[in-house]
Amino acid sequence: MSGVADDDSQQNFVLALVLGLIALVIMFVIGIVLYSHNHKARPAAVGAAAPATTVALVTETVSVVIPDGASIRVVGDTVNFYFATASADLAPHAAEALAAVIKGVEGGRRAVVSGFHDTTGDPVLNEQLARKRAEMVRDVLTGLGVPASKIDLRQPAVTAGSGSDAQARRVEVKLVD
Q1: What is the span of the domain harbouring residue 110?
Q2: Could you write out the three-class secondary structure of 93-111?
Q3: Sheet-wide strand order for 62-65
Q4: Contact 137, 81 (CB under 8 A)
Q5: 117 within a domain of the structure (yes/no)
Q6: Number of domains making up the chain
Q7: Less packed terminus of the chain by CB within 10 Å, N or C?
Q8: Where do the H-state alpha helices sit in 116-177?
Q9: What letter does residue 44 receive in the DSSP assignment?
Q10: Residue 155 lies in a domain
Q11: Mean pLDDT of all residues in the chain?
């Protein structure tokens, strides 16, 4: 019996190590994006106020699809982070989408974060996973310097997402005034 427990323990350790390394790589990429964003040429008037106009994140749809099911999609003022089945890990290419949310918040907007799940499996576990995914996005944003007071974690009235199962497993971040 202890041999099986040891094997499970070793598998869990390796899985945690791999997931930790993936998270480290994601944070590194996010850091590079934010560093390059913050070190672009500045206007001559140091400390000048930002223009009062508000613009959408992007004028067209941006999508990155990852074969394992994790992906991101940016449409206007909404960023969707899609997740692989039974996972709360962000897509490896999420840095651009996170940077877009950060830029919107820096422009005076608030980020409303909501988690959704697909309809397969245990409904109670699905709701917990939807919340865990939303908390993951919130925690990454706050870890990247977004003030917690600018992020609203909201549970939607219906947490079962619409569309295919892959489209339903998402966290939606809406930038609002």
Answers
A1: 54-176
A2: CCHHHHHHHHHHHHCCCEE
A3: 62-65, 71-75, 78-82, 170-176, 110-115, 151-153
A4: yes
A5: yes
A6: 1
A7: N
A8: 123-143, 165-168
A9: S
A10: yes
A11: 76
